[in-house]
Amino acid sequence: MQWSTAVGGVKMNNNSENETQLVIITGMSGAGKTVAMRSFEDLGFYCVDNLPPTLLPTFLELIKDSGHKLNKVAIVMDLRGREFFDHLFKALDELNELSWVSPQILFLDADDAVLVQRYKETRRSHPLAPSDRPLEGISLERKLLEELKGRAQIIYDTSALNPKALRERIIAEFSVNRKSSFTVNILSFGFKHGIPIDADLVFDVRFLPNPHYVDSMRPKTGLDEEVYTYVLKWSETQKFLEKVLDLLTFMLPHYKREGKSQLVIGIGCTGGQHRSVALAEYIGRFFEVDYHTRITHRDIKKRKEK
């Protein structure tokens, strides 16, 4: 059968743009940000060192205007630009509203004792305590970065990592296809067989017209063209899909940015044969352009004709 992402009054914009992968490298001074930036350069990322947060929206506009020719970008942000630090969280919030950017924060940390030793070895002063002991600057910096660390999707403790090991870890983490690292599982089921215990989100579609009461469709499932068309033709189905797709379009990037490896979305009807199957197929096909998607019909073979 032919699947469509527009049925009746439901017509959602699901055009896949070239998504820009953006990694913001930040963390404690001396924890390895320079090594990290060079590692991303080796991976083909366009790298910018110490970009002030106030310039991030302008920088992203330039990327967009270029036609997304820069689809892999890494930016180092640290407290050397502390006069702009108050603008950082505003910039991050605005970043999350952009559908064409896939941002991640990589936070590099290390134990205080290790950081002090590294400063001694390089004979450098801490940027927040240029005329004081390094530990004073480290303590102040750690306090300032607490909230930012809490918003990071990836945190590396480099206390036991030499530059070579840190580089290898970054290459192993970021050289893979990031699209396949987040899986959207669409699961149809029947409430009379129980709610899936592993579902993160559950939508109850038992309010929709039921093909079970149409004799010619009763022995069929939502995989059959006749049942699929019947389920999707109703105005309430169209309205439901419009709202659910809009909600999931908003939520999925946020789940992905938080580092979740998969999301299980349950679509339930009474027996798991008709309505839930048809809608699971529709929703799964809608998101498969932008995400690694799996569609499973848990109860489609459990029907027992009387």
Q: Work out the helicity level.
A: 25-40%
- In sequence order, what are the helices and strands, one letter per element? EEEHEHEHEHHHEHEEHHEHE
Q: Structural class of the helices, strands and pairings?
A: alpha/beta
The stretches of 5 or more residues where confidence is low (pLDDT under 50) are: 1-17
As a whole number of angstroms, the C-alpha radius of gyration is: 25 Å
The portion of residues forming beta strands comes to 15-25%
Oligomer: single chain
How far apart lie the N and C ends? 29 Å
By DSSP (H or I, 4+ residues per run), the number of helices equals 10
Largest beta sheet: strand ordering = 4-5-3-6-7
Summarize the structure.
The chain is an alpha/beta fold. It has helices at 33-42, 56-65, 88-95, 112-122, 134-144, 146-150, 163-174, 225-232, 235-257, 275-287; strands spanning 6-7, 10-11, 20-27, 46-48, 72-76, 101-109, 154-157, 183-190, 201-204, 262-269, 292-297. Strands 4-5-3-6-7 form a five-stranded parallel beta sheet, with helices on one face. Strands 9-10-8-11 form a four-stranded parallel beta sheet, with helices on one face.
Describe, in plain words, how this protein is organized in 3D:
It is a single chain. With 306 residues, this protein is of the alpha/beta class. Helices cover 36% and strands 19% of the residues. The protein contains ten helices and eleven strands. It has helices at 33-42, 56-65, 88-95, 112-122, 134-144, 146-150, 163-174, 225-232, 235-257, 275-287; strands spanning 6-7, 10-11, 20-27, 46-48, 72-76, 101-109, 154-157, 183-190, 201-204, 262-269, 292-297. The protein has a five-stranded parallel β-sheet, with helices on one face. A four-stranded parallel β-sheet has the order 9-10-8-11, covered by helices on one side. A hairpin with a 2-residue loop joins strand 1 (6-7) and strand 2 (10-11). Helix 4 (112-122) packs across helix 5 and helix 8 (225-232) crosses helix 10. The two termini are 29 Å apart.
